[in-house]
Amino acid sequence: MKRRFLMTGFLIAALALGGCSNLGSKTSDKNKSAQTQSSNQESSDETVIQDLGVKFKLPTSWEKIGVEGILAGENEMSFSFICPDDAKELAELSKKIDEKKVDNNGKKDKADEEKLMNLYMEKMKNIGSILRLNKNDAEKVLKSEEYSNYSKKDKVGELNNSVYYFVYNEKIDDSNLSDASKSEVKNIEKSINEFKNSIKPIDPSKIKSNDKGEKASEESINGTISFKSKTIQGKSIDSSIFKDSKLTMINIWGTSCMPCIDEMPELQKLYKDVKSKGVNIIGVVADTPDEDNEALAKSILDKKGVKFDNVIPDKDLHEWILKNVKGTPTTIFVDKDGKIVSTALVGTASKAEYNAKIDEVLKSIK
């Protein structure tokens, strides 16, 4: 159950949008589902995590500050946050590193990356974790070094052969924080028991799935897309590709975004279907150029059977994404000149929903 923290310049830069954010992933309320693929809203108050077999309610003060959870392995959800002052500092440093990386064709400066990661780990404040443990191993795991820093290890329920715990500290480390941020931390501390008491195990097989799912939201994004770069496969590509089609659908995704990855097989089917309408589909990998993420993106695309072009953004396109895209996946539609001709879809959508949107946009540009 070793913790894994994944951070990209794209996600860190989003911190600058304001408010606290968990692990560098800031999303607006309307597209939060684009980043939390493993959770379903059972009601307006409760969040169900099917992968973990648990439901809980975030205190209002936590939601206001921006606390969210991230799955850290199969049996743990960790709750952490970064406050506004620190988020701004991280975003500024990340932007400088990203610009340098873009200029160097995705090659990383190890010293820069280490500096950013060290600052990130210093500023990220941990609240605690929900654990699902085997009843026979629970005592041993709780005594392990991994959880030795937690003073409180409270049992919150049992289900079948599993026992659930919330491990935390009543006092959150507020070192290196501003007075304003320390005040926010105190509000979080006051609500820890409220959160702990809301945690309930739930049998994943009994969770009612929403067959329709959550629809992607529509958001106004303007501008003209222009780039000269290469694809993940190494092919040269530029925005003149738009002239070959009546309409181009651009799916902006990231290698750490599971909803993005999950919808790829449907996007590939859509790509084949809409060719006859004079429509092309391309992807843009938001967390590139980055040599590690490029290799990961190639692996993802190969495994998902994606054949349409996926672009590594050049400096101009990279900056445009940072300024205009608040979460992944985000899908935009451009005409032959690269001009955005419709509202963007934020979040995943079904093949039918994408088709309907394409037909709507085609009618508007005739």
From TrEMBL:
Taxonomic superkingdom: Bacteria
GO molecular function: antioxidant activity; oxidoreductase activity
Domain Thioredoxin positions: 207-363
Segments of skewed composition (Polar residues): 33-42
Protein name listed in UniProt: AhpC/TSA family protein
Signal peptide extent: 1-18
Region annotated Disordered, chain positions: 26-46
Annotated source species: Paraclostridium bifermentans ATCC 638 = DSM 14991
The entry's keywords: Signal
Pfam families, per database record: AhpC-TSA (PF00578)
Alphabetical list of InterPro entries matching this protein: AhpC/TSA, Thioredoxin-like_sf, Thioredoxin_domain, Thioredoxin_ResA/DsbE_sf
